[in-house]
Amino acid sequence: MGAVRAEFIKLKRSLSWTVVVLLPVAMVIAGAVNSLVSGESPEDGWPTMWLRSVVFYGLFPLAIGIGILASLVWRVEHRGGNWNALMSGPTSSMRIVAAKAVVVAVLAAAMQAVLFLTVTVIGSFVFAIPGPPPGRYAAVSLLIIIACLPVAVLQSGLSMLMRSFAAPIAVAFLGAGAAVVLLLAGLDAAIFVVPYALISRATQLGTGTFSDTGAITGGDVVSIVTAALVLTTALLTATTAILDRRDTRT
Amino acid sequence: MNGRAGANEARAVGALARADGWGTMANRWAAVANEFAKMRHLRMGVVASVMVIIVVGLSVGSAATSPAFAEAAGRSWEALLAGMSLAVPLASPLLLAVMASRQVDIEHQGNGWLLSQTSGLTPGGLCRIKLLAVGIVVAAATVLESVLLLGAGLLLGVPDPVPAGLWAGYTASVSVANLVVLALHILLSARIDNQLVGLGIGVLGTIVAVFATALPPAAAHVTPWGYYALAAAAGYEGERLVAMTPAYGSIAALGVVAAAFFLFITGRSGWKEG
């Protein structure tokens, strides 16, 4: 746990909270302004509110948000002599990789919590939708958090390999774009191979968009959780193996 | 820095030593060549290619998945232009932010601002050179996007004649919007060392650009990203696909105002502590 705690201390001055708060809030507000300007309030209440806020968010802003968070977490290691300090320290590659990924995943989970909260507040107060959002959206949020795990590991690995801040974010964008094309083509099996497709699929769950049927089945839930666990394990192993072969830089 | 960049830097340094703020004509081109050498090192070609691939892919993809496109007779240039009018605002703001951020951040990292300043190129002058160099790449990428989409339409056998005027006008409008957003990000990245700020604004810009199509035109005029919506050459009115005329006047005005602003900011001495 020491490594994870150290990572959270490093985060304190990284401004990562701005991403965690601003990105989801901006997405929900953009959706709401769009609805207000076109003069239509969500007719059937929470389902439309959720669809407008979350589906677009899952297509690429979420992947980019995780990419930015991962770059922020690794940025400090690429500065000054920190990389060499990291390489010559007693912490094993596995623990470094896992600790960084945990931090990114926790921030991604916080982003989802902010999104859920903002949807609730805007839905209740701006559009006066009666009652709280149905429980299934809390459950979908939990699934989205799980689906973010492999993306967090992948982006953390990319930001570890690339010293540039922006390059891994461009990769996330390209990956998210490819995932949209795969899902548009109805290739849902892509969620087992492409982590970006997994988060897009999870955010579409129960909305009836893309190839989603609108109903949340046990099969959907099981395949999302399985894909998340398999991809996370594979990516963690791969990233650790890569870091093991890295050395100090001169 | 690689060898070629170093050699170019030396040449630019020597040439600029005798010049004011951003040098004489020949010196400027030496400095631009220097930026191109840096770009090669920064793999800016890859980022620009990503932008072209995403725009062309999404444009063709969104047109091809519309039901009218299933049969050859239903295929129209409007569908492709509508696809591009959606794909450009989706892909450009963030990737332009990435390009500006990379090209400017190397000066923060190696304190290139000071090196340039000692050779007579002020930080403002260096920003102008960067806009010129990256701008050439961005303009070329924008034209390439447009030409590739045109080629895709011809391959798919769109029956109508090519609306050449609208196509050229749209390409020019998007180029202006792209260059203005690029200029803004170069200034931002130069001013603020933390790349999070520039990229964060790039993400917010994407959201503004995508949703600006739904806003009234007056609201779209307020931010540079809104002009992607004003440039739209085709779109859906309800269910119906219609050709539109880009708001040429507004886009030209944006270009002039942004150019004046950029020259003013980069011309002020001490706007950025070197």
Question: How would you portray this structure in words?
Answer:
The complex is a heterodimer of chains A (250) and B (274). Chain A is mainly alpha-helical and 250 residues long. Chain A has one domain. Chain A has helices at residues 2-11, 16-37, 46-59, 61-75, 82-88, 93-125, 135-161, 167-184, 195-204, 218-244. The longest helix of chain A has 33 residues, at 93-125. By secondary structure, chain B is an all-alpha fold. In chain B, 74% of the residues lie in helices and 3% in strands. In chain B, strands 1-2 form a two-stranded antiparallel ribbon. In chain B, β1 (234-237) and β2 form a beta hairpin. In chain B, α6 runs antiparallel to α11. Chain B is elongated and about 65 Å long. The model of chain B has no long low-confidence stretch (mean pLDDT 87). Chains A and B meet through α2, α4 and α8 of A and α3, α4 and α8 of B.
Descriptive keywords:
A: 250 residues; mainly alpha; 73% helix; B: 274 residues; 11 helices
Query: What distance lies between the first and last C-alpha atoms of chain B, to the nearest angstrom?
Result: 20 Å
Average residue-wise pLDDT of chain B? 87
What is the helix/strand order of chain A? HHHHHHHHHH
Overall number of structural domains of chain A: 1
The H/E string of chain B reads: HHHHHHHHHHEEH
Bin the helical content of chain B.
over 70%
Main sheet specs of chain A: none
Biggest sheet of chain B, open or closed, and with what strands and sense?
Answer: 2 strands, antiparallel
Strand content of chain B: under 5%
Poorly predicted spans of chain B:
none
Question: Which pair of chains forms the biggest interface, and how many residues does each contribute?
Answer: A-B, 34 and 35 residues
Q: In what range is the share of β-strand residues of chain A? A: under 5%
Number of helical segments with 4 or more residues of chain A = 10
Any idea what the shape of chain B is? elongated
The structure class of chain B reads: mainly alpha
* Residue runs with pLDDT of under 50 for 5 or more positions of chain A: none
Strand runs of chain A, count:
0
Q: Describe the global form of chain A.
A: globular
Helix content of chain A: over 70%
How many individual helices of chain B?
11
Radius of gyration of chain B: 20 Å
